Automatic annotation (TrEMBL):
Homotetramer. Residues 194-403 form the Glycosyl hydrolase family 4 C-terminal domain. Its cofactor is NAD(+). InterPro entries: GlycHydrolase_4_CS, Glyco_hydro_4, Glyco_hydro_4_C, Lactate_DH/Glyco_Ohase_4_C, NAD(P)-bd_dom_sf. This is 6-phospho-beta-glucosidase. The record marks 112 as: Increases basicity of active site Tyr.
Length: 430
């Protein structure tokens, strides 16, 4: 922000039904985040209009004096922006449904961000996110991209490898994990050490009033709360002892793989189909001209505390606070068992220059390190495939991933998924 008397916030993918929660967060921090202009950008005219008009009513209801512009023009949205929030879904929910329904035909897990479904989502998304980064670099070179687009860590790494460094990846899992642990250990001053990749993370050390209570917490069954978008698991508390840490709910796809695959087959409809129904219900609610706040139904989409994570990060960047946020950033020298250019999900101090990883307590847990090393190699190859349309890199990603592995099966599933998504894969040659 310069002499413009306020921030310009560009929301790319503003037709997302999560956007009202984001605006609710900006309203909440209006005293320390002076937003001059919101740009609501989406290529879907219907959703951009319905969601955008609700957001305008929310701003008016709270008498927040910010200009709000709805546009389909990316350049108009990002020009001279201070912060660009990306929350896009290339192919929309029908593409997600393919990600979740094709893999089970081959005995593989169909999931939005994990395994081959997450791989394909990344392939569709990487070219578009790199284009957005190019436009931001030209039209708003001082802006930060705040990326919520999934799979967040992979997308953030791809954009960095493409050459755009002013990007920070976000997820609501870390704040949900740390908050749920605090609720289960309510007394005293609690500190936690968190490490991982996006949707592959652990709280591996817990102290209460300076005393190490990690083993005690594990024995007592302290765990992360279940997320609405992840089906219930049959895992007992011994799995926490096996992991030696409080684990992300997404790790249930690894620790309870067969149960999750069975749920895929038996549920009747996939999560993407459920989300499509919820989305239409939300859009119908949003269309009501009397609605001036986010409805409770929004919590069913699985994005709990999304606005808190996003708006707090923008607040800390703008106000140069030094506050700690768990975000997806370049590893550098933070984890010596990974490469410097790998993107990791760790605690960072936030100031006007970006996110700076904090030193981590030594990780002696070989389970965590081995899983991170393995899945990070999958992520590297996924990025290589997405940037270059490299089928060999795609297969390398699949054979190393714990949820895939079998070459012949992965090859057959990949062929069908590439063909089903070819309209969104300009980097591949068909």
């Amino acid at each position: 922000m310069s002499e413009k008397q306020g921030l310009k916030i560009a929301i790319i993918g503003s037709g997302s039904t999560y956007t009202p929660e984001l605006i609710d967060g900006f309203i909440r921090l209006r005293e320390t985040l002076p937003v001059r202009q919101f740009m609501f950008m989406d290529i879907d005219d219907r959703k951009r209009t319905i969601v955008g008009e609700l957001c305008i009513r929310m701003l008016q209801e709270e008498k927040m004096d910010s200009e709000a512009i709805l546009t389909a023009d990316l350049d108009e949205a990002v020009r001279d922006a201070d912060y660009v929030i990306t929350q896009i879904r290339v192919g929309k929910l029908p593409a997600r449904i393919l990600d979740e329904t094709i893999p089970p035909k081959y005995g593989l897990l169909g999931q939005e961000t994990t395994g081959i479904g997450g791989f394909m989502k990344a392939q569709r998304t990487i070219p578009v996110m790199c284009h957005i980064a190019d436009r931001v670099k030209e039209l708003a070179p001082e802006a930060f991209i705040i990326n919520f687009t999934n799979p967040s860590g992979i997308i953030t790494e791809a954009v960095m490898k493409h050459g755009f460094k002013r990007i920070i990846g976000l997820c609501n899992v870390p704040i949900n994990m740390t908050s749920s642990v605090r609720e289960q250990i309510p007394n005293g001053e609690l500190t936690m050490d968190y490490v991982g990749l996006n949707h592959l993370s652990w709280i591996y050390h817990i102290e209460q009033d300076g005393r190490d209570i990690t083993k005690e917490a594990i024995r007592q069954g302290v765990k992360s709360e279940r997320m609405n978008n992840i089906p219930p698991s049959d895992l007992d508390r011994e799995i926490t002892a096996v992991a030696g840490a409080v684990y992300s709910p997404y790790l249930e796809y690894y620790y309870d793989r067969e149960h999750k695959k069975k749920h895929n087959l038996d549920s009747g409809k996939c999560r993407g189909e459920e989300c499509m129904e919820i989305e239409e219900q939300l859009l119908a609610l949003y269309s009501e001209k009397t609605l001036c706040r986010k409805p409770e139904l929004l919590n069913k989409r699985g994005g709990h505390r999304y606005s808190e994570v996003a708006v707090n990060l923008v607040h800390d960047l703008y106000n140069n606070t030094g506050n700690v946020n768990i975000v997806n950033v370049r590893n550098g020298a933070t984890l010596d068992f990974l490469e410097p250019d790998d993107v990791v999900e760790v605690a960072c101090a936030i100031d006007r220059d970006g996110a700076h990883p904090l030193p981590l307590r030594k990780i002696d847990n070989t389970h965590i390190k081995t899983m991170m090393e393995t899945v990070k190699e999958y992520e590297r190859q996924t990025v290589n495939a997405g940037l270059a349309g490299d089928r060999t890199a795609a297969l390398r990603a699949m054979v190393v991933h714990p949820l895939m592995g079998d070459y012949t099966t992965s090859q057959k599933c990949l062929d069908e998924m590439l063909n089903a998504n070819r309209a969104y894969l300009p980097q591949y040659k068909f």
